[in-house]
Amino acid sequence: MSSHIHAISDDSFEKEVIESTTPVLVDFWAQWCGPCKALAPLLEEIAQKYTDKVKFVKLDVDRNPSTPPKFGVRGIPTLILFKDGQVKATQVGLLNKAELVQFIDSHLS
């Protein structure tokens, strides 16, 4: 991944996301997904600016089949923002940079 976004798994989801004291943006993605690949550089760019505010993680839905159904993930990319262990907001599909920033900012407060 990168220094700003790291991969998580079904096994680490509870610790990395639910128990996090910082809001967490989870990118549910797959290697074969074109829109997921298009979203990746935008997430990387945004993650650098939100270092102290939001933790960014990616969960490969093919390698981790247990977690996505728990949160109703049926299509990818799906972004879910968690705050205090709870789902704060969900966004399905490819976003542009402005939409991504708006999605995060509107749900942080």
UniProtKB/TrEMBL annotation:
GO terms for biological process: cell redox homeostasis. Residues 1-109 form the Thioredoxin domain. It holds the Pfam family Thioredoxin. Keywords: Disulfide bond, Electron transport, Redox-active center, Transport. InterPro entries: Thioredoxin (IPR005746), Thioredoxin-like_sf (IPR036249), Thioredoxin_CS (IPR017937), Thioredoxin_domain (IPR013766). The record marks 34-35 as: Contributes to redox potential value. GO terms for molecular function: protein-disulfide reductase activity. Disulfide bonds join 33-36. Coiled coil: none annotated. One of its GO terms (cellular component) is cytosol. It comes from the Bacteria. The active site is at 33 (nucleophile), 36 (nucleophile). Belongs to the thioredoxin family. PANTHER family: GEO12009P1. This is Thioredoxin. It comes from Aquicella lusitana.
